[in-house]
Design goal:
The complex is a heterotrimer. By secondary structure, chain A is mainly α. Chain A has helices at residues 18-22, 33-38, 43-71, 82-117, 125-143, 172-200, 213-245, 259-292, 299-312, 328-356, 365-388, 390-396, 400-430, 436-462, 484-514, 553-558, 576-584, 599-616, 618-637, and strands spanning 559-564, 567-572. Among the domains of chain A are: 290-475 and 482-514, Up-down Bundle (Cytochrome C Oxidase, Chain A), CATH 1.20.210; 526-587, no CATH class. Chain A is built from 19 helices and two strands. A two-stranded antiparallel ribbon of chain A has the order 1-2. Chain A is globular, with a radius of gyration of 26 Å. Classes of the chains: A mainly alpha, B mainly alpha, C mainly alpha.
Chain lengths: 664, 104, 198
């Protein structure tokens, strides 16, 4: 064991150093190369990794969608067999929901929450790293089912009896159950971490009512995750005990109630819907005021309606089950509560629209995507309200009308919002601006593509085309305007239009990476705290933690009110560079950052071993559990901040600026 | 922020329960448990179920408020827990209602 | 923290509250929904025991009462440990943590005995919906207690060897919160599952 010599005579240096505490590993100290990424606990690096991996899964899920649309592009088509088709739509939905939209929102949350609240990192940096690795390993585990006997094929909400061993004899459903358990743990610890960060790590003066709306919406989302994840954890455990250990929780033949699964799934599943959309609401609430050059109309309304959506979102789950015979009272109650939740959502749409009203609009790509989000989400939201009416919903359940609805809200709402975030924050994250020309093409192709793909599905659904239908025979398609074949072909063309748009984005990313031209410090004349630091931000985020005096702090540091004829008006008195120089004139003296660690990735790695063991050989699980236990011990024994003797040259000793959790 | 922290420390120094207070609390809890268990031997008739539910609720909150210090700690800690507890009660009671659990 | 100054937990945070404790309370709030789901599943299925014994036939109330009492007393020893840790009394902290772990082990031992007895009476995990949901619910609770016992023993070892990172009293308090929560869940299970007749 090679411990570093203690370099100073300070008696407190004899406190535990990680190397001495463990006797196994010295702490990773690389600041460049792959090691600086794999062992990092920096929220910005983790945010970028979340984003990159989520983008990979987005492309994968997109390819699955294209295969589905290819299969449905022609009558009696044979691109996919019926079995493969089932696997394809199950994995398409699972990938898009759990491996793209959720982690991509987590990527933005990781990167920007600490910056927006004025913190040096999240509250539990090692937990943050653990969350990312669990997500990555869970995603790989889930997708490894393709080559290990077949992917899950019961649909993304895995209703009984489709989920039972009788109807799904491959290991696919087992991979699905266990993979979602792993990503569920990732979401849960991520949620706890980010909530503590927002509650406890804010800069001086950053009251809750001065939080940027993105931070607020993420806070609501993390609370939803915190309380929704355990519900699906229960459901998944019950299903895996049924499939692996012979219990019969959802097996009707043995007297079980299949509705139990539906309840547990949707008690989780409906908050999940808001988990998907609220981050995008947060993003466009940042983008729209910036490019309308006006403060957000009714900040408090947007915040509280977001919280209201989060709360009421817990009382509407059974509207997914109107066709399952709940009984008239239950249906009536859930029908009314579903109509109620449209109110706070409508409030938000009014607020965004009124922010645009009278603003000096600047149609950048980010702004285009934000406005696209409002338009498309409103369409999806309106068809959603019609589903709250149980009699109509009973007609439309399990038809393409539902498919149209939720793709309008998820692709048109959530995904378009995330793209607004890419274009808006790219210069902050990478110091270079994405090409606006390619971006404009990217936006219009996606916008038109979404309408072309999912618009016709309303018609298909009203005509009765069932969801998850593998093939349509030519002779049953009907005539005239309502010809199913025609609209299916349009939808398939539309899906490739979206794909072209996404491809342009990928090209844009690579071209921007090769560009040498730096982005201006404040390219959009932005409003919130993350723009107060350099682009990309330094490892410690801020040279000096700013004191916050107002909502839209950065804007108010640049602009001042001056008296003019007919009242006062805002005039730009300082550039972003000047504001930043002013802040950095007195840098904080003692900054202690969380130190990199081997334990998060090691601990995360033990989980897929355990889950592979559950499927193939329980001895493997035991082996995984031993690694888990050892990693947990190593974790606990390692202080989250390295002693200053571990730096070379040694860091200056002193007070840490923020307390970092010992177990974090 | 510092004001709040000082206040919290101040409160803790004064209100922190002593060992004997904990022992008395435990004795009361033990007594309640004995009372609960007695329903197995003594027939309380239709009073049994409400009595058991009340005793359970009292024990639940005594442990929460005294042993887990919620009574002496910041309200924020309690809020985190009560939101979870409230949601759990709400959604699962509603779900059991749809199964007609309480009318059967 | 290997820092020159060790601060009280909560120093320098916005609310003045400790990050760790806040996180622990959130985790416990989230656990309410986990156990709520398991309890509801049991409630739904407790009457479905065709082809096997039902609750009334297998439950051994005297034994479970003793177990419940043991777990309740472990909560007392846990708060004594927390108080000792706050008074920086390492000897008593370790003593009460060890006693708590022993009482916890006793409870788990009782559960193993109970499960074995049920199995001999013909109530296996897959016998009926009642048995599956019963074993799942109480099993999850048992696993929580076992993890608690492991954490308590690890804490004793770490304190003995002086290798604790961060604030010692807070570490004891955190594990204490978890431990009491597990006890609170048992208070609910004992009443709803064992005492109130189906």
């Amino acid at each position: 064991m090679t411990t570093l010599e203690l370099r100073s005579g300070d008696p407190s240096d004899s406190l535990v150093t990680p190397s001495a505490a463990l006797g196994i590993f010295r702490r990773p100290l690389a600041t460049t190369g792959w090691k600086s990424w794999v062992f990092t606990v920096d929220h910005k690096k983790l945010g970028i990794m979340y984003g990159a991996v989520a983008m990979f899964f987005f492309l994968l899920g997109g390819c699955e969608a294209l295969l589905i649309r290819l299969q449905l592009a022609a009558p009696d088509n044979t691109v996919l067999s019926a079995g493969l088709y089932n696997e394809m739509f199950t994995m398409h939905a699972t990938t898009m929901v759990f491996l793209f939209v959720m982690p991509m929102a987590a990527a933005f949350a990781n990167y920007f929450l600490p910056l927006q609240v004025g913190a040096r990192d999240v509250a539990f940096p090692r937990m943050n790293a653990l969350g990312f690795w669990l997500f990555l390993f869970g995603g790989i585990f889930l997708n490894s089912s393709w080559v290990l006997g077949g992917a899950p094929d019961g649909g993304w909400f895995m209703y009984s009896p489709n989920s039972s061993a009788l109807f799904s004899p491959s290991h696919g459903v087992d991979f699905w159950v266990l993979g979602l358990q792993i990503t569920g743990i990732a979401s849960l610890i991520g949620a706890i971490n980010l909530i503590v960060t927002v509650i406890n790590m804010r800069a001086p003066g950053m009251t809750l009512m001065r939080l940027p709306v993105f931070a607020w919406m993420q806070l609501v989302v993390q609370f939803l995750l915190l309380f929704a994840i355990p519900v699906i954890t229960v459901a998944l455990f019950l299903l895996s005990f049924q499939r692996n250990f012979g219990a019969a929780f959802f097996d009707v033949e043995q007297g079980a109630d299949p509705l139990l699964w539906q309840h547990l799934f949707w008690i989780f599943g409906h908050p999940e819907v808001y988990i998907l959309i609220l981050p995008s609401f947060g993003i466009i609430s940042e983008v729209i005021p910036t490019f309308a050059r006006k403060p957000l109309f009714g900040y408090k309304f947007v915040v509280f309606s977001g919280a209201a959506i989060g709360f009421v979102g817990w009382g509407v789950w059974a509207h997914h089950m109107f066709a399952s015979g709940l009984g008239p009272v239950s249906v009536a109650v859930f029908s009314v509560s579903t109509m109620l939740i449209a109110i706070p959502t409508g409030v938000k749409i009014c607020n965004w629209t009124l922010t645009l009203w009278g603003g000096k609009l600047w149609f950048t790509t980010a702004m285009n995507f934000a406005i696209g989000t409002i338009v498309l989400f409103t369409i999806g939201g309106l068809s959603g309200v019609t589903h709250a009416a149980a009699p109509a919903d009973t007609q439309q359940t399990d038809t393409y009308h539902i498919v149209a609805h939720f793709h309008y809200v998820i692709v048109g709402g959530a995904v378009m919002g995330l793209f607004a975030g890419f274009y808006y924050w790219w210069p902050k994250m990478f110091g270079k601006t994405l090409s606006e020309r390619l971006g404009t093409w990217n936006f219009w192709l996606m916008f038109i593509g979404v309408n072309l793909t999912f618009g016709p599905m309303h018609i298909l659904g009203m005509q009765g085309q069932p969801r998850r239908m593998v093939v349509w025979p030519d002779k049953l398609t009907g005539d005239g305007f309502f010809n199913l074949g025609f609209w299916n072909r349009v939808a398939s063309v539309g899906s490739f239009t979206i794909a072209t748009g996404v491809l342009l984005f990928v090209i844009n990313v690579f071209r921007t990476a090769r560009k040498t031209e730096k982005a201006p410090l404040d390219p959009w004349d932005a409003r919130t705290l993350e723009w107060l630091t350099t682009s990309p931000p330094k490892e410690h985020n801020f040279d000096s933690i700013p004191t916050v005096h107002a909502l839209d702090e950065f804007f108010h540091r640049k602009y001042e009110e001056v008296d003019a004829e007919g009242g006062s008006r805002l005039v730009k008195v300082k550039t972003a560079e000047e504001v930043q120089a002013e802040l950095n004139a007195h840098p904080d003296e003692h900054m202690h950052l969380p130190s990199p660690s081997y334990w998060p990735i090691l601990l995360a790695f033990s989980l897929p071993i355990i889950t592979y063991g559950v499927i193939f050989n329980l001895m493997l699980s035991v082996f995984g559990a031993v690694i888990l236990l050892l990693a947990a011990f190593g974790w606990v024994l390692e202080p989250s901040v390295a002693g200053h003797d571990e730096y070379d040259p040694p860091a200056d000793s002193g007070d840490s600026t923020k307390e970092l959790a010992s177990v974090g | 922020m510092s004001e709040h922290a000082e206040h919290a420390e101040h409160a803790e120094a004064h209100d922190h329960p002593t060992n004997s207070y904990f022992i008395w609390t435990a004795l009361v809890l033990a007594l309640f448990t004995a009372l609960e268990t007695s329903t197995y031997w003594i027939d309380f008739g239709s009073f049994a179920t409400p009595l058991l539910l009340i005793l359970m609720t009292i024990k639940f909150f005594v442990i929460l408020l005294v042993f887990m210090h919620l009574k002496y700690d910041s309200k924020l800690f309690g809020a985190m827990f009560y939101i979870g507890l409230g949601l759990a009660l709400g959604v699962y009671t509603a779900a059991l209602c749809t199964f007609q659990f309480f009318v059967k | 923290m290997a820092d020159t100054t060790i601060h009280a937990p909560g120093h320098g945070t916005t609310t003045g509250l400790s990050n760790n404790k806040l996180a622990m309370w959130m985790f416990l709030g989230s656990e309410c929904l986990l156990f709520g789901g398991l309890i509801s599943t049991y409630m739904l299925y407790r009457g479905r025991h065709e082809g096997g014994p039902g609750p009334a036939q297998v439950f051994d109330i005297p034994l479970t009462s003793v177990s419940s009492f043991v777990l309740l007393m472990s909560s007392l020893t846990m708060v004594l440990a927390v108080n000792a840790a706050k008074a920086k009394d390492d000897r008593n902290t370790k003593l009460w943590l060890t006693v708590t772990a022993l009482l916890g082990s006793l409870f788990v031992g009782g559960q193993v005995y109970e499960f074995t007895a049920f199995y001999k009476e013909g109530l296996g995990f897959t016998t009926s919906l009642f048995s599956s949901s019963f074993f799942t619910l109480t099993g999850f609770h048992g696993v929580h207690v076992s993890i608690g016992v492991m954490m308590l023993l690890a804490l004793v070892a770490i304190i003995s060897r002086g290798r604790i990172t961060g604030d010692k009293a807070e570490a004891v308090e955190m594990i204490g919160l978890y431990w009491h929560f597990v006890d609170v869940v048992w208070v609910v299970i004992f009443t709803l599952v064992y005492l109130i007749p189906a």
